[in-house]
Design goal:
Blueprint: E1 8-14, H1 21-34, E2 39-45, H2 52-57, E3 65-69, H3 76-86, E4 91-94, H4 106-114, E5 120-124, H5 137-148, E6 164-167, H6 183-191, E7 196-200, H7 215-232, H8 234-264, H9 268-291, H10 300-328, H11 336-360, H12 363-367
Parallel strand pairs: 1-2, 1-4, 2-3, 5-7
Antiparallel strand pairs: 4-6, 5-6
Helix pairs in contact: 7-8, 8-9, 10-11
This protein binds guanosine-5'-diphosphate-alpha-D-mannose and manganese (II) ion.
Guanosine-5'-diphosphate-alpha-D-mannose binds near residues 44, 97, 98 and 162.
């Protein structure tokens, strides 16, 4: 006999699912009982106007069911976290309350964790034997595209699945910070365990009530992915931000050159110097505020001057690379100078990024020699 009162807590997030409560709650309890698993159900309802909470509470007298009503907060992912936080069981499960996730699959989801063969199991529609119900084509496409976008984050075949079981100790200490719906993806990316088993299942179309999936949730999904990529690959994310800012500098530079030329009719080369200085300054501000986290509190003048120096070194690097290509690889005639310039830009960017990261915007370096 284990020390846990419940082996499993099955968390059901609900919003307007009153009709589905009598369908799913008794079924979960009987499937678990038949499988010899001691389990409870935790319904986390966001104060649904249709009386979902009351419908669920009816079962609390006879079955191991807890009902939580949240009035302050709304949203699928945070509801699931709230449910997990109430659990004291060995394993936590999350599943849709509308019957989309087959209750019969619960033992197959839970057993591998109880037996110590896995830390996480995820219901998958895309492994052999899995499947989707009668989804319209556009939803199939959206689902496939959503899965492709997670390629750098996880090897899971069905990363947008909402059906999961997890050993509860793996939730402790995780800093979960999801926007929107994809709690399973959030947990799998952050839990960093390879002991994950995918359990095939066929997604049942809901028969009662309606889906809460919306365009807003799809936008939230993109925001969520950005956060997760940042979590997984912080340096790459920083470098991409650096390049976006650098690209914005092109427009500042061009704008200043056109402006100064139009207003004062100066020599174009002189205008270019102004353009360069202006772009360097706006880039500095954006890098400070956005590209480099942790750069905000650093001494401005000092870090700006270092950044200017870095940009000069970057320019020298760029010209050096171009010089080699022109002199030794004959990359100048015809339109080949465009390629040469492009390679020069890439080289300069790499120098700028390295110098910015390790010198101009490095909090440690900038603090050096300063009184605490
Ligand atoms: N507490 C709470 N708060 N529950 C919610 C909320 C909310 O704001 N929004 C939705 N839910 C509950 C629903 O009541 C249901 O039990 C479950 O979350 C899933 O919602 P559905 O509206 O049925 O979603 P779906 O069928 O469109 O999407 C399902 O399939 C997707 C696969 O593409 C979900 O499983 C998704 O997580 C999954 O990605
Ligand atoms: Mn559904």
């Amino acid at each position: 006999m284990s020390a846990f009162k419940w082996q499993v807590s099955v968390v059901l997030p609900t919003y307007n699912e009153s009709e589905n409560m009598p369908m799913i709650i008794p079924k979960i309890c009987s499937v678990l009982e038949d499988a010899g698993i001691r389990g409870e159900v935790i319904v986390v309802d966001d104060n649904s106007p249709d009386g979902t909470a009351e419908a669920a509470r009816k079962f609390a007298e006879t079955l191991p069911v807890r009902v939580v009503v949240r009035t302050e907060e709304r949203g699928l992912a945070t509801a699931v976290i709230a449910g997990f936080n109430l659990s004291e069981a060995q394993v936590c499960v999350v599943m849709d309350a509308d019957g989309s996730h087959p209750v019969e699959k619960l033992p197959e989801m839970i057993r591998p964790i109880l037996d110590g063969r896995a830390d996480i199991t995820v219901g998958s529609r895309h492994v052999t034997e899995g499947g989707i119900g009668h989804w319209p084509l556009h939803r199939q496409i959206v689902s496939k595209a959503a899965a492709l976008m997670t390629l750098g984050l996880t090897k899971m075949s069905d990363p947008t699945s909402g059906f999961m079981a997890i050993r509860r100790t793996f939730l402790q200490g995780l800093e979960l910070n999801p926007v929107g719906w994809k709690i399973v993806l959030e947990i799998v990316v952050k839990a960093r365990t390879d002991r994950l088993i995918e359990v095939p299942f066929t997604f049942n179309d809901r028969e009662l009530g309606e889906s809460k999936m919306s365009l807003k949730e799809q936008w939230n999904y993109i925001r969520h992915l950005c956060r997760l990529y940042k979590f997984r690959m912080p340096t790459l994310a920083e470098f991409i931000r650096f390049c976006i800012v650098g690209f914005s500098g092109v427009f500042v530079d061009m704008g200043i050159v056109i402006g100064v030329k139009t207003l004062f009719a100066l020599d174009t080369r002189l205008c270019a110097v102004f353009g360069f200085m202006a772009a360097m300054s706006t880039n500095y501000l954006f890098h400070r505020r956005w590209s480099f986290e942790g750069a905000r509190g650093t001494p401005v003048v000092r870090s700006y001057l270092i950044f200017v120096a870095v940009c000069c070194v970057g320019l020298a690097g760029r010209l050096g690379v171009m010089h080699i290509l022109i002199e030794y690889a004959d990359l100048d005639g015809g339109y080949r100078y465009i390629l040469t310039n492009f390679i020069g830009i890439v080289a300069g960017t790499l120098v700028n990024y390295t110098g910015s990261r390790f010198f101009a915007f490095s909090p440690d370096r900038l603090a050096f020699g300063r009184k605490k």
